[in-house]
Write a structure and sequence with these properties.
mainly alpha, 5 helices, single chain, Glyoxalase_8, Glyoxalase-related protein domain-containing protein
């Protein structure tokens, strides 16, 4: 996890007040195989749904960017490019 990237992204999306809940929602996702775009998408969806149950609304693109940062990528596009998939 790149905490620095993640905290910058949380700040950029003006979600500082929800930072702890975002970190908790990101935590616990298990990768059973080499990380791929499908897993990133699943993680983003899970995080978005978890936050939603707590009354925190984030856009799909925001959840993707937060997950990409959590996994150490500069942004979503960079993650997709590095993982070698045309999916976005």
């Amino acid at each position: 996890m790149s905490k620095e990237l993640l905290m910058e992204r949380i700040s950029r999306f003006d979600l500082q007040d929800q930072g702890v809940e975002i970190l908790l929602a990101l935590d616990g996702f298990i990768v059973n195989e080499p990380l791929n775009v499908r897993q990133l998408k699943m993680h983003a969806k899970l995080m978005k749904n978890t936050l939603s149950t707590k009354g925190i609304v984030v856009k799909t693109t925001q959840s993707q960017e937060l997950v990409a940062s959590f996994h150490g990528f500069k942004d979503w596009r960079n993650a997709v490019d590095q993982l070698g998939s045309s999916e976005s």
